[in-house]
Model the fold of this input.
Amino acid sequence: MKTDLTPEKWNALSLSHLLLERQIGPGAFCVDATAGGGRDTAFLCRLCGPGGRVLAMDVQPEAVRRTGLLLKEQGLTAQVVCDGHENLLRYLRPGEADAVVFNLGWLPGGDHGCFTRPETTLPALKAALTAIKPGGMVSVCIYYGRNNGFEEKDAVTAWMKTPDSRRYTVLVTEFANRPGCPALHAGIWRHQENER
Done:
């Protein structure tokens, strides 16, 4: 399972997957904080392998249902909960996760009037920094435009400048010459403790 490295096929999601493939191996514990249709949950299950663990969460019951169905169809297992991403620390200990993944925006094929918002996303990102272990990663795809406009994108990209550079490395990638509102990708890596 390797992400296509052809640049013209890159987008925020393929960049996220490429970085996660380099980060996550068998036995890892990952969190899909915005399960949506379950595709990232299934991707993480494959990276973690049968000895690993995946927690998927979404505030929408329809997203939880879709994720459960997709996992069953593909013979994969994850803990799937119906809860907001800002509550992720209810389900794991600080420093326990190898990676936390977010796809911000709306449920694909769902109601575009229901989308992630800065008032829950920013606390969720802060919780994700607490959730990842040294050497861990937070991956964020930022979809914007249509009903959710630019408010969340602007809030999240501004927040990405705030993690302590002595503890985290943050990379925000934008496809600058693509038309419309191309999704952005942001990666946050927690430094190993001995690197401080």
Observations:
- The two ends are 34 Å apart (CA to CA).
- The first helix runs from residue 12 to 23.
- The CA atoms of residues 79 and 180 lie 36 Å apart.
- The helical segments are 12-23, 39-48, 61-74, 118-131, 151-159.
